[in-house]
Amino acid sequence: MSSNWQRLLLAAALCANAVACGDSDRANPASRDSTANISVSKEGSELWVQGDSLDRQLIADDGQDYEAAISSDGTRIVVDVVLFSNLQVTRLMEWNEYAGTFEFARNLSQEAWRQAASELGIDIEVALNPRTRFVAWSADGNEVVLELSASTPDGRDILETRSLVLGPR
Question: What digits encode the pLDDT tens for the residues 30-45?
Fold first, then answer.
């Protein structure tokens, strides 16, 4: 057997042993405190997240500008994206501990506008320049507040604040 195969089998055995013995940090390195001390940085049309024990990861590349807010526990990131079409949307990224990466979880803009359109009796499909902007996290990180703004074809300006429940992590 080649030495590479022997190393691979040894690594698999160690990983299986770590799982069997309950050492989840060794079995799944992403379960460690990977989201501690994370930060987000803009580079041109790209948005990156990195941290003490988190490899640098591209989380958005489809916008001309970004604003990001990290939850207090570091497992969620809300990203306001100004798309190249000049539409502004708000997305939720969540930490996937098994993959060791942040992944797209929800389009918060769509949820907030559906809620507002229903309550205000407006057709969001004809609203002019609908935008969302992140305002705040709840203390427990399970809720966000967004600001919504748009104009209606009849000239009404809409400026609403909406709270969306994300649920526990």
Answer: 343 556 689 999 999 9
